[in-house]
Amino acid sequence: MRILIVEDEQRARKGLFKLITSIGDEFEIIGEAPDGRKALEIIKSTKPDVVFTDIRMPYMDGMALIKAVESFEIKTKFVILSAYEDFDIARQAISMGVTEYLVKPVTYQEVEDILMRLQSSAGKKIEVRKDLQLSYPDAHPLVLKALTMIEVSYGTKISQEELAENLGITQEYFSYLFRRDVGENFSKFLKKYRIDVAKTMILNEAVPKEDIPYSVGFSDPKYFNKIFREIAGESVAEFIRNNK
């Protein structure tokens, strides 16, 4: 897999370079760019498989870069790198088909998980996300931000405590707002959303069946199968058989 890193902070760029190259020899960094304008030149000439790009950069930001690459009809997958406060950008990224979103500072496990998902889904179309904010238009703005984070981060570890902290509110208040506006607690909603995504992946044959638990945020396949049965009312095998 050929990868381009686009980040205006040199230290962050070099750190991500070392992180990705340490994951495996199959992940090749073909270039680095300090801004979107330079990145576009590299993408047009090298056509990388994946681009890790920051959002806020001089000359051309990350979203402008994605739009520019789309206009050239270059089939490159993007991983957005940004801060927690950029939820509106995350929503825009989803609508533009960005497959992954990472919150800085990134960890080895997060990057490895994303690279494995992208590698597993290479060449296959995945349409698993929906705009949750449209389903809850009257929800509190903080709940809407949390829903966006679920959309872009369902495949990674998400906790109510961490979300509340990054939204600047107590866990108790977040729990109250979420239950009030969504109609169920955060944990149950997240499980249902992940299983909903898993169903879509199964129907689209987006990733190998054995990789689906990890792709939707479960580290234990047995636990995934248990939750799938609880939510779907049938086992994974039964779901596949009933939807052929």
Automatic annotation (TrEMBL):
<dbReference type="Pfam" id="PF00072">
    <property type="entry name" value="Response_reg"/>
</dbReference>
<protein>
    <recommendedName>
        <fullName>Stage 0 sporulation protein A homolog</fullName>
    </recommendedName>
</protein>
<dbReference type="GO" id="GO:0005737">
    <property type="term" value="C:cytoplasm"/>
</dbReference>
<dbReference type="InterPro" id="IPR009057">
    <property type="entry name" value="Homeodomain-like_sf"/>
</dbReference>
<dbReference type="GO" id="GO:0043565">
    <property type="term" value="F:sequence-specific DNA binding"/>
</dbReference>
<feature type="domain" description="HTH araC/xylS-type">
    <location>
        <begin position="144"/>
        <end position="242"/>
    </location>
</feature>
<keyword id="KW-0963">Cytoplasm</keyword>
<comment type="function">
    <text>May play the central regulatory role in sporulation. It may be an element of the effector pathway responsible for the activation of sporulation genes in response to nutritional stress. Spo0A may act in concert with spo0H (a sigma factor) to control the expression of some genes that are critical to the sporulation process.</text>
</comment>
<dbReference type="InterPro" id="IPR011006">
    <property type="entry name" value="CheY-like_superfamily"/>
</dbReference>
<feature type="domain" description="Response regulatory">
    <location>
        <begin position="2"/>
        <end position="119"/>
    </location>
</feature>
<dbReference type="InterPro" id="IPR018060">
    <property type="entry name" value="HTH_AraC"/>
</dbReference>
<keyword id="KW-0902">Two-component regulatory system</keyword>
<dbReference type="Pfam" id="PF12833">
    <property type="entry name" value="HTH_18"/>
</dbReference>
<keyword id="KW-0238">DNA-binding</keyword>
<keyword id="KW-0804">Transcription</keyword>
<dbReference type="GO" id="GO:0000160">
    <property type="term" value="P:phosphorelay signal transduction system"/>
</dbReference>
<dbReference type="GO" id="GO:0003700">
    <property type="term" value="F:DNA-binding transcription factor activity"/>
</dbReference>
<keyword id="KW-0805">Transcription regulation</keyword>
<feature type="modified residue" description="4-aspartylphosphate">
    <location>
        <position position="54"/>
    </location>
</feature>
<dbReference type="InterPro" id="IPR001789">
    <property type="entry name" value="Sig_transdc_resp-reg_receiver"/>
</dbReference>
<dbReference type="InterPro" id="IPR051552">
    <property type="entry name" value="HptR"/>
</dbReference>
<keyword id="KW-0597">Phosphoprotein</keyword>
